[in-house]
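Hi everyone,

Forwarding the result from last night's run.
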Amino acid sequence: MFIFVINCGSSSVKAKLFKANSHTNEICSAKVEAIGLPRCTLSFSSKEKSLTGPLNCKNHTEAIENILHGLQNHNVLNNLKEIILVGHRVVHGGENYTNPTIITKTVLKTIDSLSLLAPLHNPVNIKGIEAAQTFLPHATNIAVFDTAFHHTIPKEAFLYGLPLEFYEKQGIRKYGFHGISTKYVSEKARQLSPNLSELIVCHLGNGSSITAVKDGNSIETSMGYSPLDGIIMGSRSGELDPEVVLHILRQGTYTVDTLTELLNKKSGLFGISAVSTDIRDLKEAADNGNKRAE
């Protein structure tokens, strides 16, 4: 029997297969990168071999389907019914979820309602859950939330300088993200240096964040109410003076929806360079004389 773990990112799916025993041994990993782009690839890696090849893949559902087919084609699995549990990384759990949670219709509805706070992530997390329910209908699905690790951030750090009703009635506060990887890194660091009580953890990728950890608990982090806040990212603007957003809206060129699209998908490294969200593409463009990519 096996455990299948899925991480649906904004443009990728990463997955791992574990033997369901007391040691949860990793059997293999797989990933689909650059979903929807011509350079999309599918990779498999195990102790015995590693394979990478091009893939025509339009969306996250197709990516998961191809990964599952690959597990069978490479004789890792005899039958998909051998997978008894599927774990999902879900980016935003709000204040609703601070622990791993069995996914029910109610839980899925709550995750969907939080999509406004994580428009690049919760919708594709839902696609991953729905794909698992379709292709692995016999398996139990568990959600692990990226916001959960940050529930230890003290109130004086997570409250914004707004009238308190915005928090009490609408839940507007700092949540923080990348909690799953940040928790893992902080635990590994403490294993290597048992006396280490305070550290800064940097999660660097298309989405990036920085977290202060004390005694194993998150006490402050760069991302806030949504994954749009913090440092400049691949396609996200990161921190802005709120007046900048108000000024842009006052010009009348952008609506709330089109500005949301701009800040989440057309800003950051992509917006500055007009080339790509990928640092590898930027380096190549800069080497070829593109000044904006520098």
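Residues 60-73 form the longest helix (14 residues).

Cheers,
N.
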